[in-house]
Amino acid sequence: MKILFFSHDGKLGDAILHTSFVKGIKERLPNAQLFCTTAGATSQFWQRDNRISKSWVFNKKNLWETIKFAWMLRSIKLDYIIAWNLIRAEKLRFLCWLANPKYGVKIYTISDNEHASQKEWKALCNLLPDELFLQPIPYDIPLPKLARKWDKEAILLNCFGNDERRSLLLNEALFLIKEINRVMPKVKIYLTYIDRNQDFVKKIIERNECKQIEEVNCQDDIDRLVSLCVHVKVVITPDTSIVHLASTFNCPVIAIFKKDPILITNWAPKSSNYIIVQSKQNENIHGFSIEEVVKSLHELYKY
Question: What is residue 217's DSSP assignment?
Fold first, then answer.
């Protein structure tokens, strides 16, 4: 079986969920060939996964490049193309038509009352009807080589989401770190960031008296971020891909969400030990209760 699935939305969180589909297929059909399209953060993510036969960056291609890519896919003689959302872009529809998979294009979506991981489960049940999938398969990310030792009693704090609405404000980050340091003065805090957030992190270091903070730049380094989620004691993060990285390795996670029941239902952590802290606002996470985060940290840190 030859399957191409789309992962060129550039969203690392979605790609993490897709690993359950990859795991389900490869466990039951070891000789199946899996291919995917990528962009941005998902490119490095899939390149490090040897279960993927080939991945291609597919981002902002013009019509001629799309045609050449589609003809190449056609030569592979795909059985399926898998999409995780309705295909609205004409260029993508044209690509699917020209690639001409043997059994067509399969589209899997979810309703408001389902977790996003149900899409991968539906795909497995549909493509492998003779197999028994009673529930979604756990996410499955290959472990990186441990490049350095992390403090296993430490806290991973991520302040950043994909945009400002899902990122902590500077005063929120400063107060949260101050409170963590007050109740756990000897616990190290790993503060993760990428290049575009460097100035924000620099201001945190300059204005905070906590001496237990270590900055960790994860720009273009998925392995470093994965390694942290594997080894720390607790993860604190807004609603972003790190929620799902922590879930993959069953690391206790405190996830900060805006006030949106559907969003939480769709994207809650899947680890066995997690707490969701909701903002009082529908538009963003600002104004979440720092006291509630610290209280949740007390509850999860003991595991």
Answer: E
Residue 107 to residue 71: CA distance in whole angstroms: 21
| DSSP structure string for 241-299 | HHHHHHHHTT--EEEEE-S-HHHHHHH---SSSEEEEE-S-SS-STT--HHHHHHHHHH
Phi then psi for residue 99, to 5 deg, are: -65, -30
- As given in the structure block, the two tokens for residue 84 are 């995780």
Q: Is the distance from CB of 191 to CB of 157 less than 8 angstroms?
A: yes
How far is CA 122 from its chain centroid?
Answer: 19
| Pair of tokens at residue 186 | 């000897």
Task: Output the pTM of the full model.
Answer: 0.93
Q: What angle do CA 135, 138, 143 make, to 5 degrees?
A: 165
- Mention every residue, 6+ apart, whose C-beta is less than 8 A from residue 196: none
pLDDT along the chain (303 residues), means of 10: 96 96 95 96 94 93 90 97 94 95 96 94 91 82 83 95 92 94 92 94 88 90 92 95 94 95 93 92 91 94 72
Other C-beta atoms closer than 10 Å to the C-beta of 25 total: 24
Chain length of the chain: 303
Comparing CA positions, the residue from 244, 293, 303, 298 lying closest to residue 273 is 303
Contact of 12 with 45, CB cutoff 8 Å: yes
